[in-house]
Amino acid sequence: MTTQGTLIKHKFNTNDRVFKAEFTINTNITNSSELYLNKKYHYHRGYLVNISVDGKKLTEGTHYSTDTTNVQRFKFTITDTSLNGKIAKVHVLPL
């Protein structure tokens, strides 16, 4: 995983295939955050990505943009500069 800011923690639970991460957002960084999501072993039916700040779910198009050109990687860039310095929580759930 790479982040658009400073990674605080991350964990993948092999039993339920849930990935969780937290990072401090730095909107001055133009590189995307990137998650590797192995479809063959963990997410063969797909996945759901939730990104939140202060308990509020972020919305694609309003708070962040995505690049899904590689199905094994979920890339997103926080575009809402009011979130700079806040902690983002990322949860990936298998379908």
Tally the beta strands.
Answer: 8
CATH topology name: Immunoglobulin-like
| Structural class based on helices, strands and sheet pairing | mainly beta
Q: For the largest sheet, list the strands in their spatial order.
A: 1-2-8-4-5
Radius of gyration: 13 Å
Helix content: under 10%
Uncertain parts: none
Output the number of helix runs: 0
CATH architecture: Sandwich
Through-space gap between termini: 21 Å
Overall shape: globular
Summarize the structure.
By secondary structure, the chain is mainly β. 0% of the residues lie in helices and 51% in strands.
Describe the structure.
The chain has 95 residues and is an all-beta fold. The protein is 0% helix and 51% strand. It is built from no helices and 8 strands. The protein has a 5-stranded antiparallel beta sheet with strand order 1-2-8-4-5, with no helix packed on it. A hairpin with a 5-residue loop joins strand 6 and strand 7 (73-78). It is globular.
Task: List the main descriptive attributes of the protein structure presented here.
95 residues; mainly beta; Immunoglobulin-like; three-stranded antiparallel β-sheet; 51% strand; globular
Question: Could you outline the blueprint of secondary structure elements for this entry?
Answer:
Elements: E1 5-13, E2 18-25, E3 33-36, E4 47-53, E5 56-57, E6 64-67, E7 73-78, E8 87-94
Antiparallel strand pairs: 1-2, 2-8, 3-7, 4-5, 4-8, 6-7
